[in-house]
Amino acid sequence: MSAVSSFVGPIPIRTYAGAEGKGAVLLYHGLRSSMASLHREAEHIAKTGLTAVLVDAPHHGARHTEVVGTMPNALELPGHYVVLRLVREARDEVPMLVDHLLAHGHPKVAVAGVSFGGFIALAAATKEPRLGAIASIMGSPDWSPRDVPVPPDLEHVVAESPLARHDAFPPRPLLMLNGALDDNVRPHGARHLADKLRPLYANGQDERLVHVEYPDATHFPSDGVWTNMWNRTARFLYDALA
User: Fold this and answer.
1) pLDDT tens digits for range 213-233
2) Which of 32, 88, 121, 160 is such that its CA lies 20 to 30 A from the CA of 168?
3) 14 pLDDT exceeds 60?
């Protein structure tokens, strides 16, 4: 399937066209990666009829900088500061991308991401109310650092987290898929967000709110689990934007 590379302002994107007049999905990659890592997933989305738009996150891919090149371990506190900087920068770019896709005739726009990209997708929902659906695969809405109290200079940032701004999600369709054994992006954040959101959706079985923990999955799931995750994501996005 052919795709077209371009820019929206300073943001590199790669567009996999779906059916004319259908919705579009912004797709965000993992930390220290690039849009190229989700080529197959973008093709899968486009085959459903939706347009898939891969995005190089700030300081990644075609706009790689030493912010990512020299960042500390993301699982430790100094690296956590950098991750939250990157997530917030990406979040703040989403309205420009939504403007672009709406102007090109897409009636609805969704956002999805994997790992670090899942953080971005969830954060984008708190910034951009025009997003018609949100999907996070192995991401988290919890911006608290691992195993230590929130430092005073990080409190205002954590207060912007999707977990703290859970009321920004309803009634939009939200999908969160995590591995129960994932120690890179621990699953409790998505679990807590789902618990907060269930009373705000119509009922606990509302198909607009889907939260699944795969019992045997780590942050690097087997091919079978990954295929299941992405098939579920593609179906969810198609149903949400149809």
Assistant:
1) 999 999 999 999 999 999 999
2) 32
3) yes
Residue 136 resides in a domain: yes
| Residue 186 near residue 144 (C-beta atoms within 8 A) | no
Among 37, 193, 178, 50, which Cα is nearest to 111's? 50
Closest listed residue to residue 226, CA positions, set 18, 87, 38, 14: 38
C-alpha separations of 143 from 104, 133, 152, 190 in Å: 34, 21, 14, 11
Determine the pLDDT at residue 2.
Answer: 81
Q: Is residue 98 part of a domain?
A: yes
The answer to whether position 80 is within a domain reads yes
- CA-nearest of 157, 201, 152 to 175 is 201
Q: Is there a domain that residue 25 lies in?
A: no
44: how many CB neighbours lie within 10 A of its CB? 19
Considering its fold, how many domains does the chain have in total? Answer: 1
Burial class from Cβ neighbours inside 10 Å (0-12, 13-18, 19+) for residue 143 reads: buried
Residue-level pLDDT at 215:
98
In this prediction the pTM is 0.97
What is the span of the domain harbouring residue 194?
Answer: 72-241
Q: CATH number for the domain including 186?
A: 3.40.50.1820
